[in-house]
Amino acid sequence: MRWQSQIIYSWTQSFKSNGMTKISHQYQPLVGGSLGLGQEVAKAHCVDQNIQKDIDRGDSYGIYSGLSYILKTGANWAKSIEDFNVTIERDADELLSLCWDGKVKKVSATQFQIKEKNFKPKQDLNLIFIQRKN
């Protein structure tokens, strides 16, 4: 049986009329996971052929951790997100897979960055970190 869990945070925000309010969000993510990366999860997280080959060869345990950020609600705002910036860091013994329509830049052996200007989200950000064998 498949199960799912979700935690939702909400807060009240006041905005001054006829003024500019700058907002910055920072999160300490909550990570879930499972054993055995199935086709449904692989497809939902755009697992590419190279990662799938590692898994098929037995270079990965198939243990993964998943992390999601809800972004689509930002498309309901009056204006786009002026500067959208996400840095993703994986452990050295992990593979990272995600679906993203824009550019994902590798900034180091373990860090990846997404930067968008005047961003109107059309998708949420769903990541999986797949554990490799040592």
User: Can you tell me the overall shape?
Assistant: elongated
Which blocks of ≥5 consecutive residues have pLDDT under 50?
Answer: none
Beta-strand content bin: 35-45%
Largest sheet: 4 strands, antiparallel
Q: How does the helix and strand content classify structurally?
A: mainly beta
The helix-strand sequence is EHHEEEEEE
Number of strands: 7
Name the average pLDDT.
84
What is the end-to-end distance?
Answer: 30 Å
User: What would you report as the Rg, rounded to the nearest angstrom?
Assistant: 17 Å
Largest beta sheet: strand ordering: 1-2-7-4
Please report the number of helical segments: 2
Helix content: 10-25%
Topology:
Layout: E1 32-35, H1 39-44, H2 49-57, E2 60-69, E3 81-89, E4 94-98, E5 105-106, E6 111-119, E7 125-132
Antiparallel strand pairs: 1-2, 2-7, 3-6, 4-7, 5-6
Please sum up the structure shown.
The chain is mostly beta strands. It has 2 helices and 7 strands. The strands form 2 sheets. A 4-stranded antiparallel beta sheet has the order 1-2-7-4, covered by helices on one side. A 3-stranded antiparallel beta sheet has the order 3-6-5, with no helix packed on it.
Outline the structure in words.
The structure is a single chain. The protein has 134 residues and is mainly beta. The chain contains two helices and seven strands. It has helices at 39-44, 49-57; strands spanning 32-35, 60-69, 81-89, 94-98, 105-106, 111-119, 125-132. A four-stranded antiparallel beta sheet has the order 1-2-7-4, covered by helices on one side. Strands 3-6-5 form a three-stranded antiparallel beta sheet, with no helix packed on it. It is elongated and about 60 Å long. The model has no long low-confidence stretch (mean pLDDT 84).
